[in-house]
Amino acid sequence: MKRTSKLLAGLAALVVAVPAAGALNQETQARPAATQQLSAVAAGLAGQSAASGTKPNVLLVMTDDMRHDDVKYMPHVRQFIQSRGTDFRNMFAPTPLCCPNRTSYLTGKYAHNHKVWWHDAPWGYGSFDDRRSLATALQSAGYQTGYVGKYLNGYGRMRPKAAPNHNPATFVPDGWTDWRATPDSTGSLPESDPRAGSTYRYFDTTVNNNGRLEGHQGVYNSKVLANEGIKVLDRFTRSSKPWYLQINSLAPHHGGPVERDDPYLVTPARPNWVKGKFNSVITRGPGVPASGQPEPDISDKARITRLRPKLGDRERRAIRAEARQRAETLYVLDLQLARVFAKLKASGQLSRTVVAFTSDNGYMEGEHRWQSGKVIGFEPAYRVPLLIAGPGIPAGASQVSPVTTVDLSATVLDWAGAQLAGADGRSFLPDIGAKEGWTRAVGYESFIPSIRNDHDRPGFTRGPRSAIGIRTAGYFYVRYSNGESELFDLHRDPNQLRSVARDPAYTDARRALDQAWNAFQACAGASCQVTLDRSLQTDFATTRGLRTTMATATARYYG
Predict the structure, then answer these.
(1) Span 58-436: which CATH code?
(2) pLDDT by residue (tens digit) across 77-97?
(3) CA distances from 385 to 63, 243, 370 (A)
(4) How many other C-beta atoms can be found within 10 angstroms of the C-beta atom of residue 129?
(5) pTM of the shown model
(6) How far apart are CA 216 and CA 222, in angstroms?
């Protein structure tokens, strides 16, 4: 708990700290200006209400590989969204990997229905038909639609399924009024061309501006995306039509260039002025406990985790460096988002705009000996942040009923009065502000290349899935395609330290979980709303208590 207190104290100081003069001039907007702008935004919130009968605008920010507990590094996001909105404390990414889960948001479908399982061929962007998506549904409902930043892995490099003969780098998918995505590759352009940047080059971003490539060499990625987002807002807010704008950051995903202080783990590049900003408050990785050795005994875990080596001094130093650099990139992104928020306030449309903040998936940083990565069903990879503020959203509140990425997609469509045929998610708009418990299963599924797939095994015949799981308020249960399984009793073991899959005392619980598992693994559309056996359901008070217990236990174990 001492480390947690120290971290919070340090972060509080960072809200008002000012870097050396001129530090932001080359790479980002001046921080004092951004802070003043956001203070003005907060001051102007009182007394605002949504215009009756109008469709709300929606601004959605989606980060890349951001853990649910990383929000603490983003004071402006907390001030602008969390403090005047609702924190959804049980938000999950059903397939915790960039490309599949982003596709789930755009389609409203689980991976076993949209079939984009991985970021490389034969999957990735080239396997996604984006002629019918969230964007086309919103346009049909009368919305202006804008997209800024990272799209799907392989965009710009893989040929579009919707237009295989089109230049991948300049392709604009259907449904977008203003398209400013960052391609992974710019094709045949020579490296000397200023437009030959990439999504994963933090200081060399190329933007596909509605079919025209624009280079931004020497400008930090988060500033580029904020600039583009402000341009879209300026265009959209001049019209009387409602709008939807999605800004997808690269941060805190790893990306170049490689820097002198990088560990052997992949990390994100960041501006010089922010380097070292969190050194005094991040004294070890978030998944490395005070003892320095997470889980001396991992014999209860599946083989994919049992193969992980113990963390020595070198590994712990690398995880600490990784955590610091990720926090630094989020802090820079936060400053840039403050500019976007200020632009929204200045437009006069804040009172009728829903602002949402989430991530495509989480990230492992030492837990269960995973030094980095995602895909796996452990909480740091599977749980993601979701903050929402706007008309009809309770301020300063928290929601503990479970939601997922496909539910978020359904909710955005619900706000717009739009529909997307075949979607698996359920709008949680009716539940906002209600004291709902946990009565339905939350699914998890992943393709994990290092796990042997046995497609004759029941439940694993629909695609290349390696893992299928069910999350309830009190349990996480996963079955692997090689025949292994894990079961964690979150009532007694909030940190998932001991699997009880082989414990006969859990026979009844496993039987009920198997029932939900069987229903989820082949679901489509409305059948994906799997009601749990009553023995697994929890009311509001119990659900809230379990979430608090988990947060406290995590802070105690890793703090």
Answers:
(1) 3.40.720.10
(2) 999 999 999 999 999 999 999
(3) 10, 23, 20
(4) 14
(5) 0.91
(6) 11
